[in-house]
Amino acid sequence: xxxxxxxxxxxxxxxxxxxxxxxxxxxxxxxxxxxxxxxxxxxxxxxxxxxxxxxxxxxxxxxxxxxxxxxxxxxxxxxxxxxxxxxxxxxxxxxxxxxxxxxxxxxxxxxxxxxxxxxxxxxxxxxxxxxxxxxxxxxxxxxxxxxxxxxxxxxxxxxxxxxxxxxxxxxxxxxxxxxxxxxxxxxxxxxxxxxxxxxxxxxxxxxxxxxxxxxxxxxxxxxxxxxxxxxxxxxxxxxxxxxxxxxxxxxxxxxxxxxxxxxxxxxxxxxxxxxxxxxxxxxxxxxxxxxxxxxxxxxxxxxxxxxxxxxxxxxxxxxxxx
Length: 322
Prior knowledge:
54% helix, mainly alpha, three-stranded antiparallel β-sheet, 3 strands, 4% strand, 2 domains, single chain, hpI Integrase, Chain A, DNA polymerase, domain 1
């Protein structure tokens, strides 16, 4: 079968889209991107390819800026969040830049497509009372309940991503030093400290689970297989209904937000938080600082001694501020 590279380096090469996808997927693998990243690119480009086929487009050179804009608008009309649309735009940018660099298309259509604007959504972490309520609603007498409780405790204590928790291996836990060796985004390994409470939770869970021959993952299914991220999504969705949490969408990522916000509130600095969370820049961490500052302002209004005194002795009148 003829591959994309066999079409030559001519800008007039008529490369089928399926060959362009294969060439790009090979590029991702050659760059040693994670299996999750390669799979995500493949899935998003597959959906884009289905849209192109519905428009009668089968060659890579036939993709126009107008078609890309039509697809992004279709995603928006379907109710997809601005974050996913922006990530798809980034995937297309990487894909078409690769095709142009390899001269598989005469010109890069994405250069004429403006980046979609992202909505600046407010992060809504749990309060400590809500976090306690969530944990109290997990039945630890059942094995699956103890597993979920341990996952929730670990995320609340360390801020790990759901994929990092699911992929955690027993040899990556250092109980003596109190650190987890985590493989994060971009195959970047980091050490994440965890508390005595989380250590005890992990230890109790592993004792109950026991050894599984040929399996070194910490969290597994009833059949000893790797859990997928869909399990975490469904588990927290059910837990949210039991806890009756209002105004906050309960998820593993919400627990990550909660950890980060409480870390700042309790005196942690942004640079250590950045390393713990595995962020490449301080941009996201600064948002947690804003959340913490908002919470501190609310606490100040509640506990300020001057506010609790009412009229200050010696003052003649109260001033109404609008």
